[in-house]
């Protein structure tokens, strides 16, 4: 549940005309008042009457909201407060009464209309469609005193996190949890305005079951693509070659002192431009804290080898893809899970979980292709649970992490299931990854303390969501992979999602 506190305004009548109109893209379906201030009377009396032509007469409602401002002792110049609240596309449809309760809780939390205060500001909640409401208030109390909201954005966010728990809705990560950089409201609005201009955005939008036609922001598309490539790349050169092969625009940043030294990179999508026609570039750090070039370099170097060699290393050294790769991958995951449970320090456990996220990301990319599917969704949840807070990359180098990443590269080359008997091995790999996710959830819960309890518990829930989706996943039968371990770019994998796959885990 996402609240967006908008800049304060001066014209409450103009805002009401917009809210009871068709909207910028005709997205205002059945606008109606679902909640109002104490003492406002029946909601049916507040509902602006519809006129010929489909417009609503908001003059009476505007007058009611403006009365305290006109009678105020020292009314502010910008007396109109506006906040929109939207839930996740996968959430169930809430009733008007439930949205009314949500609106009242947010208004009380930000301090504009505390519960039991008959002289609080006048406000109302206007509902559109099934998934969002708008809160409108004037910042003068009915006892003529002005209210000056303080930290209203933070308080609205905290109220929505609590309401997600109480209503069992999709839980948004607390600020700073996980590794990704979330799209700004401007980016989301631009994506919705322009529509899905690429296959990844259309596929993600369809997969999410969006009821309101929202699309995926380019930042999210690029973050997923860059993370998929980083999970299977062997070094810096391979990383940039794979990005180019995937159709991602890449711009390198060179050192001012040594022009031959690459110090960073930025990525963009073909067709995603500014109003002037220039490509919109995102540095790796603007996608996720662990996708900067220095952080990526740290994952490609310094992993010690096991004295006896690993299964993944031996298979990679043969230059051939074995027919039972899923079984070998499951064995590698089981070894890594046991090592994570017995890890002597949080840094070692985090390094193993971080590499396991790469393995699941590579598996999802290989089996479902660029358009994604339920396994890609599970990888997203696992990613949130595995990556450390604030996106810090674990400094410890453990050989189990190297084995997981070597297996991820083999799966990326392998591409798809090769024979029908591999279905059993593939299911075993999914169950093994689900058990790893449950172990990771237990670890995150054990790490919760008074300072980071909320963040860690969110990561634990994300891990359990990933485990649930992995247990429900049914891999489709595919065709033999055509890649070899020596290729610099991954093979093009068709979308092999089954038509009867289950919905998203809630």
TrEMBL record:
Give the region (Disordered) as residue ranges: 193-218, 467-506
Q: Where is the composition biased (Low complexity)?
A: 195-214
**UniProt keyword Coiled coil, yes or no:** yes
Q: Does the keyword Coiled coil apply?
A: yes
Give the keywords, sorted: Coiled coil
Q: Which intervals of the chain form a coiled coil?
A: 433-463
What region holds the MobA/VirD2-like nuclease domain? 77-169
In Swiss-Prot or TrEMBL terms, this protein is called: Mobilization protein
Which stretches does UniProt call biased (Basic and acidic residues)?
Answer: 497-506
